[in-house]
Amino acid sequence: MRTAVIVDDEELSVELLKYLIRRYEIPIEVVGEAYSGDEGLELINRLNPDVVFIDIRMPIMNGLEVIERVNAEHMGNVSFIIVTAYDHFEYAQTALRLGARDILLKPVEPELFLETAERILGYKRSNHDLFDRIIEYINLNYSEELELKDCAEKFHTSSSYIARMFKKYGGTSFSAYLNGLRIKNAAALLKETNLSIKEVCYKVGYNNLNYFYKVFKKCVGATPNVYKGKE
User: Fold this and answer.
1) Residue 217 pLDDT more than 90?
2) E strands of 9-112, at which residues?
């Protein structure tokens, strides 16, 4: 379960976001609400949420200032979603340059909210509760040693049943999904950080560098060295 803080000086906007999270059964728990930028900054620093829904124009400290302060202290580990009026769209574009993940214009449309939530989660929901919970678990723990039997034990079901769900609802296999997720995150780390290829390999859940090279090339079409621009 991801955690979220909502920072908006309009109470109705806060309540709408909470309602939409409940309506679509998004695996995000709202752990805090703030109605000014300075209060929001304090909450974010104290609660360290995964996601922050934030308005731009607010009393005392605006959303852009909050994002800059949080990024400096949390090194970009918080996913910001801008929720703002069309009149402030130009400011929202600045927020994107600061690393915000997405923009939602007020009044927030439910379908667009769902699309944004799925981008943050990293997967599309299937409306099959068990499968969605397994996918969420994998997305949160892909960097650990993770096998099909581990998921079966955790969710009190069989490996064969999970395999069938992946084929039916995901159109892929468990291992293909896990490898794809790991390689997607590995590619981002190679482009956006100064981590070595070996460090990236271990960070995304592989314990064999040769196997990592093989899977990376199969998924991306280039070796990690070429992708990182070192060859």
Assistant:
1) yes
2) 28-34, 51-54, 79-84, 102-105
Instruction: Kindly report, residue by residue over 67-85, the tens digit of the pLDDT.
Output: 988 988 765 578 999 998 8
Domain 129-228 has CATH 1.10.10.60: yes
Q: What is the pTM of this model?
A: 0.77
For residues 95 and 56, the answer to whether their CB atoms sit within 8 Å is: yes
For the chain, what are the domain ranges?
Answer: 2-121, 129-228
User: Residue 179 is encoded by which pair of tokens?
Assistant: 């490898």
CATH number of 2-121: 3.40.50.2300
Q: How much of the chain is in helix, strand and coil states, percent to nearest 5?
A: 60, 10, 30
Residue count of the chain, please give it. 231
Calpha distance 212→207 (Å, rounded): 8
CB atoms within 10 A of CB 87: 11
